[in-house]
Amino acid sequence: MTRLRSLASWAAVALAVQLFAAHAVAQDAPAAPPTPAAGETPAAAPPAPPDAPPAAAPDQPPAASEAEAGPPPAPGRAIERVKSRIGELEARTDVAPAIREEALTLLRAALGHNEAAAASAATAARYQDSSQRAADRITEAKQQLEALANGADEAEFPNRIRSLALTEAQQALDAASGEAATLRSELAQLDTRLRDMGTRATGAREEQTAEKQALDTLESPDAPQAVDSDPIVAEARRVAIAAERRARTANVNLLEQEIISLPMRQASATARRDLMAAKLEKLNKRIPLIEARVTALREVEQAKAQREVDREARQLSAQHRVLDAYVKDTDVIRTREADTVRLVNENKTRLVETQTELARVSDARISAQQVLEIGSIGGEFSELLRAMRSQLPSSTRLQRSIAERDQTLVDARLRRLRAEEARRALQNPAAMAERLLANAAKDGESIPETVQPALEKLVVTRRDLYTSLQDTLATRIAQLAEMNAAERDLLSQTNQLSSLLNSRLLWLPTAEPIGAGWLAQVGRSFTWLGDIEAWKAAGLTLVERALERPALSLLVLAMFGALLAFSGRLFRRLKRIADKVGRYSTDNYWRTPEALVISALLALRSPILFGYAGWLLTQPPQTAEFTSGVGTGLLAVAALVTFLRFVQFVSVEHGLFSTHFGWTERARGLLWTNVVWLKFALIPVTLILGMIHASSAQYLRDGLGRMAFLAGGIALAIFLWRTLHPRHGIFAERLLPGSTIWATRYLWFGLIVLTPLAIAALALGGYYDGASQIQNGLGLTAAIVVAAFIGHSVVMRQVLVTRRRLEIRRAYERREKARAQLAAQEASDAVGEAVTHAPEEPEIDIASISEQTRNLVRLATLLLLSAALYVFWREALPSLALLDVPLWQQTVTVDGATRSMPVTVSNVMIAIAIGVITFIAARNLPGLLEITALHRLRMEAGTRYAVGAVSRYVIAIVGIAFAFRSVGFDWSQVQWIVAALGVGVGFGLQEIVANFISGLIILFERPVRVGDTVTIGNLTGTVSRIHIRATSMTDGENREIIIPNKSLITEKVINWTLTDSITSVKLKVSVRYGTDTLRAQMAILDAVKATPHVLDTPAPGVFFTGFGASALEFEVRASVLQLAHRSTVMNDLHVAIERALREQEIAVS
């Protein structure tokens, strides 16, 4: 069967290969006669070949196959023979159906192989013909290219254009624009083909090798042969094998012809591309000339018409004031139209520039892909790729331009609508003139009869002007939309190329490792850095630009002055907050955010000036490279100082770390001291690196840049050594002996300390750009980690404050409850009545819910930190792109359309992460709810327990749904499975569902609560836990009894403590006939009342219930406060009654 499947499927694969090859050849060679499709008979072939073997007699195999008849027949004849055999076999009725189907399957596979062989032969012939004709086509293309290069008619072209009328010039412009669009499309297709040809040789050779190996296996005498019991199947198999051999041989020849012809076809395609590019360049030069001619002719016509209109308008406006006012309003509209026409003409040039830039970036992306496909990239290619990246347009500028043009587009559409409304109002010039004159007559002004006809002419002129304005605005709208489309395409291409280059250039060297010439580069760099005139120019530019923005400059100075003036107050406020932290009466959660904001304000004091100065120096218009470099360096210094000052102020005395987060004084002081000196050490390093980054001089990167990297790396290594050392660092007291972090402390400590030194070594080794990108990434990573740490600590502080308040409140509640019970007991003793006690519900374990909350906070912090770092480093590290490798395709429906979406490794990882989050959240969510919300509501403990339990199931269901959705499964795909499961549940899982629903009823209706004493059948115990399927109960022998929830709903249940914990005790006493019943009754009652734990209310009683067969029968009734006292009271009652009757000499029977 494996062999059969191979024969049946190989034909489809081979045909697909032929289609690809035929498409490639069709671009290089003239169209070949069509190959007949499967099931068709070639036009020139007869219905049945004359040499076709005769039909076999019944129960006899057909004649020997063409594989045994000497040389193989031509593909066309082989196809006809197989078709004939298929027809004969389908017509036979004496063959078993199973045998006929198996033989037909083999023959149809043979037909497919023969058709593939025919297609391969035709494609190979076209490859050969294309190779033979390629030289002529190359020569012809070169001749045309030389003719274009000579430009014999280019000198005369402007003269010919100047002789064209407006209609002819417009037609020439339309024709040239259409031809240019066609050439651009063909050039894009040729570029794609040439890129495919560049890698096709290797692929074709690999395919040919695989085909030859398959052919050798097919022809090998050691190949396994299928043994067929029926001769018809055996003959069909021989035909199929021969056809497969023929198809593979033809495909090997096809691939050989493709490989042989590939260089000539590449040369031919390259020549055609050069010719098309030259034609397009020629058109791009001619189109502006034609556009200029069209614009000039239109302006001449418009000016001529305008002069005529102005002359007539001036004549009319002199007749009356109304006419003069109307003419002036019309002139305003005409000015607007002229401005719109000017914008349209200006945007034509911008559109051409954008399209040219788009073509350049597209070509650069193709070139970059071709370079990167080479594999090993040397210094020359590295420089080429870096030059490509430096010449990319700014993505930020493109996004801003698109957003601004979107708003302009909206305004243009609104203006066109207003013009349409105004033009529609002027449809009837006579009516409009009458209305205007009527308004003028209301003011008592006389209107001569000649004014109305003149005004009607002016109305017509304005209506025509609005029509022209509409057309111009329509042109502008289309132009703006086209420019936005071009810039969006340019933005997409730029982002793709930038991402591609950034991912590969990170690990490419930009310079030679340091050597003998490095010191010379350093000296030259210091000369650049010490240029006094350049620093003076930067200072003057800073002052000039600050004075150009007086309001903003004053605002920045005011903010700096305010922070400087209020620094002392902020420090004092920080100390007052610290004094209130930890005290129940003064501490609350908002103390920590307030201290965080104060620390941030203190950190912003000096960075405001650095940042504003840097921003001023980097604003347009562009200045000297040194000046803009100083601005870039100041911006980097502002970011660095903001971060380090913030860490400095959260670690001051009475700050966040010591007072709010519980750091020791030694750890806080150590961090503060080292951050202070690190800040002053890194400021010059950061300024120099920022200045060098903005410079185009390579010697600055190689000289001073690498020295700055080295200095910064050493400073950071010393800082990390002193602050993170496992024995005397800031976390020394927090490392728990025996933990994984403690066991690996020297490993992670060494890696962290060596990281900045390794980055400096990269820069010294020539990988300056890579080291710079990694350094920036690690700096932002450090900021993200610090932010995550502080955020986690702030939330944990809230948990601590809430837990402390909850514990104190519980202590107050217990004290008040004890006082109330004591007062009630004293009042009861005064009146001789027992106090009724409601059953106590178990309290929530505060330590447990606090631990659950901490677990959730840790999980949330870790997930947010991991997500932020993954998103940040995704573009920098190409290895992370492996997570986007598709594993399978999933069909999804989006907006009613069905499409195939890949499910990648990252999708699976997200699904696993969601599953882990769901599991942890379901286990720990009740604690978080209790800490954050439920303890504030007036809920009983049982109700809070029910809310927490239901929340677990909701979290589990939602989490599972999102996990499946992340790997491509949505509700539309699983609803039938759910329906089927519903049917299965209805028949096979009804008990589980019944227990589940009963559990929900118990949780919310609460007929049974945790802590209640219940009796179900002959089982009595205390409810210890209510699960969603069953309830746990502990009996008197401390055994755990599992009761299905359904039993608690459907069966008879005695809840001894549902509303009252008091229970009744009954026992029977029998005395001998002849006993004084009154004396016996009083003796028993006195004994019952004297028994411990028997309540006075309800009062105990002794009742004479009847005459037994041999004794008088009494029933004793008493009440006890708790069910746990029943056994003790029963024992004590028996002992006391027996003793009291014996003392009264009353015999018990």
Automatic annotation (TrEMBL):
Ranges where the Mechanosensitive ion channel transmembrane helices 2/3 domain occurs: 951-990
Transmembrane segments: 551-571, 592-617, 629-650, 671-692, 704-725, 746-768, 780-800, 856-873, 908-925, 945-964, 976-1004
Protein keywords: Cell membrane, Coiled coil, Membrane, Signal, Transmembrane, Transmembrane helix
Domain Mechanosensitive ion channel inner membrane: from-to ranges: 551-888
Biased composition (Pro residues): 44-61
Coiled-coil segments: 124-193
This protein's name: Mechanosensitive ion channel protein MscS
